[in-house]
Amino acid sequence: MMKTAPYLLFLFSFMSFCNTLSAQVVFTTEWKSEADQIVYVTEWKSEADMIVYVSEWKSEAEPKSGIWYYTEWKSDADWQIYFTEWKSEATLVVYFTEWKSEAGYRE
Q1: What pLDDT, in 10s, does the model give residues 11-22?
Q2: Residues 29-47: pLDDT tens digits?
Q3: I want to staple 90 with a disulfide (CB 3.0 to 4.6 A). Which of 40, 79, 95, 105 is the partner?
Q4: What is the DSSP letter of 63?
Q5: Could you give the CA distance from residue 30 to residue 59 in angstroms, rounded to a whole number?
């Protein structure tokens, strides 16, 4: 008989990881140790992992869309992000755009 506890633990961990990758409602933290993503902002679209458009509307912030909505509440966020000045310590390099149509992960 197969034990279900390890399987359920794996499934829960995998689902949490996938949610972290696709989240777009963000909270900016002052502490790198709290962050789900350490973000470096580049001036060059060509070196970005993600092109980000910041929306005023939470409903536009969909998974993997590149459309971010900043929340004031840590508990409301999908991602806690920390902005770094050093590209070498970043887990995500982003370029901010003024055009919603440009938003998304770069391939």
Answers
A1: 444 444 444 445
A2: 999 999 999 999 999 999 9
A3: 40
A4: T
A5: 25
The one-letter code for the residue type at 90 is A
Question: Domain extents for the chain?
Answer: 4-105
DSSP three-state, residue 49: coil
The residue to which tokens 């929340």 are assigned: 71
Q: What is the pTM of this model?
A: 0.76
Q: Which long-range contacts (CB under 8 A, 24 or more apart) does 29-36 make?
A: 29/74, 29/80, 29/81, 29/82, 30/82, 31/82, 32/82, 32/84, 34/80, 34/82, 35/80, 35/81, 35/82, 36/79, 36/80, 36/81
